[in-house]
Amino acid sequence: MKTNYWKNLGIPAVVATRLILPLFLWKNVFVVYSLIFLVDWFDGEIFRKAFSHGKNKVYQLFDKTLDFYGYCFAFAFSYTRASPILGALLFFFVLRAAGMVVFLVKRDRRVFLYFPNLFENFFILYIIAYTFPSLHFLLNGTWFYLIFLAIVVFTVVREYVLHGKKFSFYKYFTGKRWV
């Protein structure tokens, strides 16, 4: 019997990485969140290689739960650093938390059409401005409102494409259907 290294090593490595990395946000938020983002981006491919068929619903549950775990730490970081956009981050965090509860009950990722992931995108904006002080102006006045509008439009379109239409970047780029 052939050993499935993706299943035996890949999945535990992804889970461990996604559980441990958020603990280090306070060391270097930009680097650590970039790593979290990259692992989240590639975990679908690892999951696909670990399980050959019919596991997309399991993957969605796994992925969304670990995403939310990371968002809890991201919000805690924003709170402890007194983010100038803490009110917006709190609102979008609560919106996503409500979406997670509905998702866990219904097990249907289309619920995220109504609870878009605005939190993560605004957190990324915050950590960019936090890391690069010359970009603090992005969190104030007209710039913030323009970026706010762009993020909302981008996020709503992305959620529709990923969760409403169930678009697969993997299939688009490889021509193959994954789990």
What are the SSEs and their pairings?
Layout: H1 5-20, H2 29-50, H3 56-80, H4 86-106, H5 118-131, H6 141-164, H7 169-174
Class inferred from helices and paired strands: mainly alpha
**Biggest beta-sheet profile:** none
Please report the total strand number as a whole number. 0
Strand content: under 5%
Mean pLDDT: 88
Number of helices: 7
Global morphology: globular
| Helix-strand string | HHHHHHH
What is the share of helical residues?
A: over 70%
Radius of gyration equals: 17 Å
> What's the number of structural domains?
1
Description of the structure:
The chain has 179 residues and is mainly α. It has one domain. The chain is built from seven helices and no strands. Helix 2 packs antiparallel against helix 3, helix 3 (56-80) packs antiparallel against helix 4 (86-106) and helix 4 runs antiparallel to helix 5. The longest helix is centred in the middle third of the chain and has 25 residues, at 56-80. It is globular. The two termini are 22 Å apart. The model has no long low-confidence stretch (mean pLDDT 88).
Provide the descriptors you would attach to this structure in a database record.
179 residues; mainly alpha; globular
Gist of the model:
With 179 residues, the chain is mainly α. The chain has helices at residues 5-20, 29-50, 56-80, 86-106, 118-131, 141-164, 169-174. 23% of the residues are buried.
